[in-house]
Write a structure and sequence with these properties.
The protein is an alpha/beta fold. It is built from twelve helices and 14 strands. One of its GO terms (molecular function) is DNA binding.
Length: 316
């Protein structure tokens, strides 16, 4: 018994005439008659009494009609539910994002998910090393991590690198476009607390150039770092993702590229290598990549450089 046969059967029962049913169904009458004959053969009973007045349901036919209407209604409900889920997906997903990256990604990600469906997104802000561990433990579906290290149970897809900028009071910038690493070393530094990939990059660069430096404070919160620099208490180093809002608001800070020495860090997409993503999580991952791609292509993520083989490469 097929849904097609039930649909044909119901149409004949409702129109009471084989010819009119074949016209309504856009099927030749002999083919329609054969389908009903096959259905009657399978059920072992006659479903219609055929005569000069058309086709009327027999008692077994009336029983089948009630069930057929219910089954066809359920079939349509299933089709509509699946179509609705495709057009407006639902579900729950958890994504981990470091604080600086979240400043660029979180708002457009939530906005797009709200516009497209009913996915409930949990955003977790943690240091990247913790985020990778949470993905491995199955507590996060996705992580956008900085300088992610290989970890059993996690698949890491490098996306792009982002340059680190010297952050200093506007008065100290004096209209300059770049800054030398030595000038950074000669200034009082307020650096992110350990562990921090930014801290590691800065100290490695200074050590590489045999430059001594003066650390006046360690701060774990990016917003606090920026406030302290704005108060002219020291200089720091941060990626553009952490600075874009403050620079756009023309606060008392300046962000300058470091000339002659590229300080950068790598941004990657991390997912489990043994647990498949749910549909909701897959949508969150693809939406995140789409937003990141647009940010890089538009130039809004200054200092970002696409990596070879990156999933952010234009799919066209």
């Amino acid at each position: 018994m097929e849904f097609k046969q039930l649909r044909y059967f119901v149409k004949i029962a409702e129109l009471g005439n084989m010819t009119r049913a074949s016209e309504a169904l856009l099927i030749a009458q002999p083919a329609l008659s054969q389908q009903i004959a096959n259905l009657e053969s399978e059920l072992g009973t006659r479903l219609f009494d055929r005569g000069v007045y058309g086709a009327r349901l027999t008692s077994p036919g009336e029983v089948l009609y009630g069930y057929a209407k219910s089954l066809l209604r359920q079939h349509e409900d299933v089709r509509q539910a699946v179509t609705q889920e495709v057009a407006h997906p639902t579900g729950r997903a958890a994504i981990g994002i470091p604080g600086s990256t979240g400043k660029m990604l979180a708002e457009p990600l939530i906005r797009e998910l709200l516009a497209s469906g009913g996915i409930l997104l949990e955003l977790i802000e943690r240091p990247s090393a913790e985020l990778v561990d949470l993905v491995a433990a199955g507590k996060l579906d996705i992580a956008i991590a900085v300088d992610a290290q290989p970890r059993r149970g996690v698949k890491i897809a490098p996306l792009f690198t982002e340059a680190l900028y010297a952050v200093l009071p506007q008065a100290s910038a004096q209209g300059r476009q770049t800054l030398k690493l030595r000038e950074l070393a000669d200034s009082p530094l307020i650096l992110p607390s350990v562990p921090s990939t930014i801290r590691q990059r800065v100290e490695a660069a200074l050590l590489d150039k045999h430059l001594k430096y003066r650390l006046v404070s360690e701060v774990s919160a990016t917003d606090m770092l920026i406030r302290l620099v704005a108060a002219d208490l020291g200089w720091t180093v941060l990626p553009w993702s952490a600075l874009s809002d403050e620079v756009a608001r023309q606060t008392r800070i300046a962000a300058l590229p470091i000339a002659g020495y590229r300080l950068d860090r790598e941004i990657s997409l991390c997912v489990s290598d043994n647990l498949p993503l749910s549909r909701a999580a897959d949508i969150v991952a693809s939406t995140s990549l789409s937003i990141l791609r647009r940010l890089l292509q538009s130039g809004k993520w200054m200092g970002a450089k696409l990596l070879p083989g990156s999933p952010l490469a234009d799919p066209s």
